[in-house]
Design a protein that fits this description.
The chain is an all-beta fold and 142 residues long. The protein has two domains: 33 residues, no CATH class; 102 residues, no CATH class. The strands form two sheets. It has a seven-stranded antiparallel sheet. It is globular, with a radius of gyration of 18 Å.
Length: 142
């Protein structure tokens, strides 16, 4: 049986990706960076429409715009990876410490308006929905 060995270094969208393999294992190193679509929006007070079991829109203070991609798992410790990234949209997959996970496509409509398609598992149940998010101002000071 042959052992598989691979070495690769690739530049993509300004991020360094290095793969080192031995015996079929690979190590990926990514420089941490905010996705391009999320770089164009600002933290603050966001109004979210379309959340399941919420008849009306919900307003949330969002200190980190990456949290909008994980709206189903807000308040949970999650790790994310950017699957695809452009100025207009980004796809993020994430896993949370409680076993939940998801995949979200965030589409920038304007610098103050997003469409978020999200799906995954939360509290051992599947979810799949589309929401609209709109920045409505600054978060209230405490």
């Amino acid at each position: 049986m042959k052992d598989f060995h691979a070495n690769a270094t690739v530049m993509r969208d300004g991020r360094l990706i290095a793969g080192l393999g031995a015996g079929g294992a690979a190590l990926l190193l990514l420089a941490a960076a905010q996705p391009s679509a999320l770089n164009q929006i600002s933290p603050g007070l966001w109004e979210i429409q379309g959340l399941p079991h919420s008849g009306a829109s919900v307003r949330k203070c969002v200190p980190d715009t990456a949290l909008l991609a994980r709206v189903e798992h807000s308040g949970q410790a999650c790790k994310q990876i950017v699957i695809s990234d452009s100025e207009a949209s980004t796809v993020i997959e994430y896993t949370c410490s409680n076993g939940g996970f998801g995949r979200s496509k965030v589409t920038l409509l304007t610098p103050r308006s997003l469409r978020i398609e999200t799906q995954g598992i939360s509290a051992n149940y599947p979810f799949n929905y589309v929401i609209q998010a709109r920045r409505v101002g600054e978060c209230a000071a405490h």
